[in-house]
Amino acid sequence: MTSTDVPPPRPARDTVPAPVRGWLAILAVTLGIFALMTSELLPVGLLTPIGAALDVSEGTTALMVTVPGLVAAVAAPIVTVATARIDRRLVLALLIGTVGAANLASAFATGFAVVLLARFLIGVSVGGFWSLAGGIALRLVPRHHVARATAVVFGGVETASVLGVPAGTLVGDLSGWRTAFAAVGVLGLVSLACMVVVMPRVAPERTMTFADLPKVFRTHLALRVGIAMTFLAVTGHFTAYTFVRPILQDDGVSDGLISVLLLVFGVAGICGNFVAGALVTTRLRQAVCGIAVLLTASMAALAMTDHSAVSAAVVLVVWRLGYGAVPVTFQTWILNAAPAATEAASSLYVSMFNLSIALGALVGGLAVDALSTVSALWIGGALAVLVLPVAGLPVARGMAGRTASGSGPAE
What we know:
Keywords: Cell membrane, Membrane, Transmembrane, Transmembrane helix. By secondary structure, the chain is mainly alpha-helical.
């Protein structure tokens, strides 16, 4: 273990919120993550109607996913460093409030440029909020509850897939995409109110500078491995998932059934998230390998044959079981890889995660416009399967003994 691998000191007992308040704060952060991810991914279910209304192609409309992803990738470390001396509760509240306002602006936008500006603001909020929220459980609940609390926080990601994106898609189909964005804007403001009411003050533990970011990246080999695997898995997923609606339409699945399939997709994601939450403390590397296998197999299965609604649902369940495990699994990997610098490591992870979302949407858009919708599935599967050899590296095998609190075998 290097000198920088010493686990961070746990906050004194009197600085940790009472159990009930700590868990209420966790739920408030989860609601914030739910609002964020619903905001970021809502265009996936509404690409076709948004493009038609604003007179842009589906590939161009996918910039609504690409732009916030790219901005979040840059914003994560910038916001983390710029707010290093500020109460984390205040920062999180400001960021989630921005999400609410930006979605309301999208709902009333008269042109695609205004929508992209709003998506830019959402990207800032996603990057900053996630980089701070990813490790917030360490500050809100006792150590032995950290893994469970982290799974709950990232359950907000999967619940966004179950309720947010499908419900938004359904609202968009019934009342128009602007109504869907307005509803998510109101959700952001509700999240803001909950955070202000139930979350305790969370003072920063240390002042982080930009110099800390490359230092943490250079020092921790396991962190670099985790970020590489995040890139492959998330880019592969979003290369294909961004275009799941037109892919299903090409298979003859009706628009009404697509909303139902996205709901099934999301339910499987919640299951994957909590299964991973139970596994990551003892079988972290195995969870990573399982993710790679499920993503690759499901994308290949969807690409090779035409599907009915039933067979498509089966494939999507397998796909989402794999991807549902991604956020909590890789966040746990990152926290374990750099236990003495969780915020710096998390900001790097969030940058790569969101850059991967953006690159996946961009690569998928180029492939769909130049080749075919099914090409996005093949490219996504090829990226996902590359996680396996990276997970086979010696340092990755050593991560099996790490725990969420930062103890375990050294690198």
